[in-house]
Every structure is written in C-alpha cells, then in structure tokens.
Amino acid sequence: TSNSMLLGFLEQMEMGEKYVYFSTGWSYSTCLQYHYVADQKTWTEAQTYCRQTYADLATIGNKEQNDQLLDTITSAGQSSEVWMGLYSTIDWRWSDGFSGVGANYSNWRSDQPDFNAAHDLCVAVRNVWTHDLCVSVRYVWNDLLCSYKAFFVCTSRPLGAT
C-alpha cells in the first residue's frame, strides 16, 4: 500500500497539486492537499461540507503548513476571514482530531484569542492591515463566533492514500 500511496502522490504532484506533509499520529505520515472553498458557511457547516466532500477542515502543525495554507488562500484571491479546523470547547483542538507533533503550533494575532463574550470558539485565518500604510501585513489566526459565515479551506488525502 505504501507504493500505491507514493504513486498516487507522485501522479498528483505531476498535475501541479500543492501538498502539505505532516505526521498525523498514525504509524506513517500522510500528505494532505488544501482546497479553498469559495462558499460562505458557518464553521459547523464548513466542517460538514469538508467531511462530506474531502476529509475535514484544514489542520496546521507548523510554519511550513501555515505558509502553504496562506498560499492556497492568496492564490484564490481571498483577503477576508477563512475558516480552518481549529476550535475550542475548553482547550483548542483540531476538527480532524490531529494531536501529533505540531498540534500545538499557532499563529495567533497579537491580541488573540480574546474569547469575545465567551462565544469566540472557532478559528479563522485573517488578513491584518496596517491602516497607516494601507497594506496587508500578514495573515494570522483570529477567534470568531462559530456562527459567522466565512469562506473555508478543506484538506484531503491524495489518491491512493488509505
């Protein structure tokens, strides 16, 4: 099966697909592909859509994966909030259950998370603007109401992955 996974990965790489590599806590590592979805949904609706169509909302375990997610968002021309798979009940956790090496990686905006009125329990990537210069500084994580409607990014396993 590892050969078929590798062949599926290489076939999709030849088609110019972008992948993120990380350990999922399983006995082997998998490559995930990010999919930007240009449809505004609440976090729960986005999670349901990703699970039915791909695998789950995007998980990020390190700076390289964060950069890959941002490349996916910016190449889609998106500059507003975009849901990813991080949420909180009491502790922050990933929608797909990821808890391996890198699960505690974060890229929060300097004043986040703020748990505004204790209702901000879902996380979006947000473009921060410098109003003095009227330019985008960087994309950072921001906690928002889960009922807020935003675009989102899903992940999926490449062809041949089990």
UniProtKB/TrEMBL annotation:
This is C-type lectin domain-containing protein. Coiled coil: none annotated. It comes from the Eukaryota. Residues 34-155 form the C-type lectin domain. It comes from Gouania willdenowi. InterPro entries: C-type_lectin-like (IPR001304), C-type_lectin-like/link_sf (IPR016186), CTDL_fold (IPR016187). PANTHER family: C-TYPE LECTIN DOMAIN FAMILY 20 MEMBER A-RELATED, C-TYPE LECTIN DOMAIN FAMILY 4 MEMBER K-LIKE-RELATED. The lineage of its organism: Eukaryota, Metazoa, Chordata, Craniata, Vertebrata.
